[in-house]
Amino acid sequence: MFPKPKGRAVRIDVEIDPVAPGLAALNRQEAPYRANVWLTALALTGAFFQIIVVPIFFLPQAPGLATLVVVMLSFGAPMSRALLHEAIHRRLARSSFWNDRLGRALAIIYGIAFDVMRFGHSAHHRFPRHAFDRADIIAVGEKRIVACLHYYCGLLGWFYVREILAGSIVLLPRRAIELLTDRALRTDDTLRVLVSAIRQSLDRSLQRCRLDLALAALLYGGAFYLYGACWPILLTGIVVRALITSLLDNVAHYGTPGETGAAAHNLWASHWLSLYVLNGNLHGVHHDRPEVPWNLLPQMHRQTHKGYAGGYMAFLVMQFLGPRVSFPLGTRSTGAKQENLISTTRPIT
Q1: pTM of the model
Q2: pLDDT, greater one: 140 or 81
Q3: What angle do CA 309, 310, 313 make, to 5 degrees?
Q4: CB under 8 Å to 128, separation ≥6 — which residues?
Q5: Which residues, other chains included, contact 269 with Cβ-Cβ below 8 Å and sequence gap of 6+?
Q6: Between 91 and which of 31, 180, 248, 253 could a Cys-Cys bridge form, CB atoms 3.0 to 4.6 Å apart?
Q7: Taking the CA of residue 8 as centre, how many other CA atoms within 13 Å lie in the half-sphere pointing to its CB?
Q8: Strands 338-340 and 310-311
Q9: DSSP 3-state assignment of 111?
């Protein structure tokens, strides 16, 4: 385990970005900025094809081919999401100006405001597995049938929908935003610190968030207009994107202890799968050192001398075992390896 930096000041509304002694070689200068920009251009081009090119040049003559192209382009969601994640951590482009604008563009094609995502992800780093970040754990007093319904709906696409709906709160009057967030966060003692952080963030980025959502609405409103009577084709692509995004969102946290601060998994994946998710399978390393760019996560993982909690695809499938009553499959560091803890509770089936 790397030494923790001393005197670290944490800001909730921005990236948690510690730099430990001895890690100077793993700084932002080693982020693959040129590759990131090319991959971002590819992702934005894919969105352009899906939203504009397909309805103009494929419809209504070839609806079958149009559907195939739209669905295949939706499979680019994991890489687009990973690039957006790099922008959130200010590692997508060397210039802050271009980093944020490319990040905003990637968020808009997802239908989300970039600053909303940045705030939520920063809270995820500061308070991993907080009360709103552990859908796979059945809370004390919660009915199992309700927990299972909520969990499986989220796993099969509702997470993506919920993310868009939650982000759309910025369209409400500011007073309403503050009232709703205050009421939600005060149910969890750990998250109460976010109340003031949200107000500070609204001061800086509320108008920008509203602009991003307005652009997303215009973009997809125009897209559905171009598709015309063939609008179910575009909707199919969005559903596929929602399914993929929701399936991958919690895979590296599934089965970890349902308590704030629990570590994430490092999961084994093939070279091509790792590239497809920009090494998102090494999520535990990312949580330990969020300043490290995606291309250096494997090197960092080797230096920790930890193993893997399991396979990435195996954990993806394992999620269908359902939510759990306590903390199964939690992990702990034991020097040279990472061990799975055996739970005495069974998955809810």
Answers
A1: 0.84
A2: 81
A3: 135
A4: 253, 260, 261, 262, 263, 264, 287
A5: 277, 281, 311, 312, 313
A6: 31
A7: 15
A8: unpaired
A9: coil
